[in-house]
Structures are given as C-alpha cells and as structure tokens.
Amino acid sequence: MKPHALIIDDDPEIREHLKERLESFGHECLAVGSQSEAEEMFKQHTFAYVLLDLEIPIRYGRVSAKSMGENTLRNLRKDPRNGNAPVLVITAHGKDSPALAVKLMKLGAVDFLNKPFDERLEESINEALQKHAANRQDKQTSEDSMQPFRGGELTFTEEAAELLDARIVRSNATGYRILKTLAATTPQGARVAMSGKALATLLNLERGDEAVNETIKSLRKSFRKAMAQKNLRVETDSLICNSDKGYSLSPGITWKEGVTVSTVKEERRPPLAERQAWFRDQVLSGKKMTRRHYEHHFAMSEPSAKRDVAGIPGIRFNGGGMSGYYVSNGAT
Predict the structure, then answer these.
(1) What is the DSSP letter of 118?
(2) From start to end of the chain, where are the E strands?
(3) CB neighbours of 120 closer than 8 A, spacing ≥ 6?
(4) Which residue has the higher pLDDT, 132 or 295?
(5) Assigned CATH for 152-260
(6) Is the separation of the CB atoms in 231 and 147 below 8 Å?
(7) Smallest Cα–Cα separation from 316: which of 330, 298, 305, 299?
(8) Three-state DSSP class for 18?
(9) Is the whole-model pTM more than 0.85?
C-alpha cells in the first residue's frame, strides 16, 4: 500500500509542487490550505505522515500566522486516528531558529524542511517513515512480551494515587480529583458514572468537559507507562471506561478507603453549621456552587445535601437545571 500523506500549506503553488514531488516519489497525498481544513481531513482519513507549513490561516481567506500551524500540530497530537503520524514542519528560509526547533519538537514534530525544497525532501520523508515503523515494531514487540493487566486496587495517599505500588498521578493534580470522585458508589451499590460536563461542574474546572477529557487522556497515558514498568499490558479503558452514562472506574479497579456516598459515618463530617457556613462562604466569594459540590465535598447523599443547603440563609438558587448555581440574595 502506498504511503498516504497530507500537505498543509496556504500557498497553492507550493501545494501543487509538493503533490507532484510526492506522487513522483510513489506516494498518495491530499492537500489543504488552512487549519480547519486540515482538522477535517484528520477526522476523515488516516495519514502515514504530514507536511505542515507553520504559517497558515485558521480558515481559507483569513490571515496566516505561525500560531495556527502550531495549534494544528497540537491538535493533531490529540487526534485518535492520526495522533502518532510523523509531522515534518515546513518553514521559510531564515524563519527557523534553535528555539523554534526545540518548541516544535516538544509539540511532536520530527523534522524541519526549509523552502525552497531540495533533494532532502524525499530523504527526510523516508527517514521519518523508517523511524516511525521501527518505533511501532519495538512497541509491539515489547507489548507482546507483557502480561495482560487483570485489575488492581487504587490507593489514595496524601502524595498520590497509586495502583500496584506504582504512582499514577500526584495528589495536587486534577487527575487525582477525578479518580477520587469516581472512586465511589451510589446508594444502590453501583459504581459512580459521570459525564465530562458533570465532572467539570463538580470540580470547578474552567474549561469544562474539554479539561476533563484531556485529563483522562493524560491519566490513561500515565497509567499505561506505570504498568509497562511492571511488564503489564493495558487497554485504553483498563483504568477509566466511558459509556453512555459517562466516565467510571473500570470493573477491574477496586479502591482503598473509597466512599459510599450514602453511608459515610456522620461523625466523620463537620457539624451542620460548619458545613453550611463553608458552602455559604464559597457562594459569597463568587464561586458558582451547586448542590453537587456540597454532596461531593462532604460525601453526602442527595436528599441530605438538599436538606442542608435549603437551610442556608443569605443565598438563593439562580437559573435552572444543570446550568443553575447558588448566588447571594443580593446578587442580580
């Protein structure tokens, strides 16, 4: 099968020149001129490699900027279909620098090509493809020798969340809070499952479910790396799985000191007045607090939290449904 490439460059003449070079090289290719077109192509096709001009517009007809090329590279690395494809960055002669090279390598670029192109174009593409194939083979060989992950106990300490004595995430990270939130059961004994939006609301994450999705992706990557050091092969959903009900801990994961939201002993919670004062202070400080924040913070069931919050003076519920939150009585 011929390698399939994507060319991203806002100059039609350069796109055409590169297409002719790649077709002559025996490769197939598609070409686009903007970030939005490129990201649409990522959704529709699987590419062996990408040639990316840094200075492209976000959409056809808009002003080209280096930041758009960098953002395209960032987004490509998150793409489930093409996230591992080698990216060769195209720069105009004199516009490259060691600092830029370091920055782009950190973002995932594998090589740099200066305009105008010489015979090094085909050579660089070959090297990138060969290195990528070798890395995939090494990874596959390594994974084939591993034992499958069968599950384990998730432990939360003051420093980190650990599984099989391996650190998954530090306790000051958002991923720790997500794992702690999911390490709970409903009153019926089922594992807690929450959508990205619900998790973001509960944990006060400014970027919403986008932040949740990115954090869970990072958790899975950290988990895979930690288990690989123990010669264990994991799947994408071995730690956290996703269903129509939302995110939840995978069936093979148990947890130590987990919380059952309806059965936490009353004596472990602060007195009612302290709980209400804490919530009222959060609201009056300007935070968009909901009843679910109260439930999570004090590990309480929904009916108990409702009774507590209903008795807090000086605040009221603003809005409705999932988008509503508490404000002070004097707020407009």
Answers:
(1) -
(2) 4-8, 28-32, 49-53, 87-92, 109-115, 147-148, 152-156, 160-163, 166-170, 184-185, 232-233, 240-243, 246-249, 253-255, 259-260, 315-318, 325-328
(3) 113
(4) 132
(5) 1.10.10
(6) yes
(7) 330
(8) helix
(9) no
Two tokens, residue 252: 């093979």
82: its two tokens: 């093409």
Angstrom distance (rounded) from CA 52 to CA 242: 33
pLDDT of 303-323, one tens digit each?
778 888 888 988 988 887 666
Amino acid type, 186: T
Answer yes or no: are the C-beta atoms of 302 and 295 closer than 8 Å: yes
222 phi/psi in degrees, rounded to 5: -65, -40
Between CA 299 and CA 163 the distance in angstroms is 23
Within this chain, domains 4-144 and 266-328 share the same CATH topology? no
Class of domain 4-144: alpha beta
The domain limits of the chain are 4-144, 152-260, 266-328
Which position has the token pair 């869970």? 216
Cα–Cα distances in Å, from 164 out to 101, 168, 184, 226?
39, 10, 19, 9
Most distant pair of Cα atoms in the chain: their distance = 77
Its CATH class, for the domain covering 266-328, is: mainly alpha
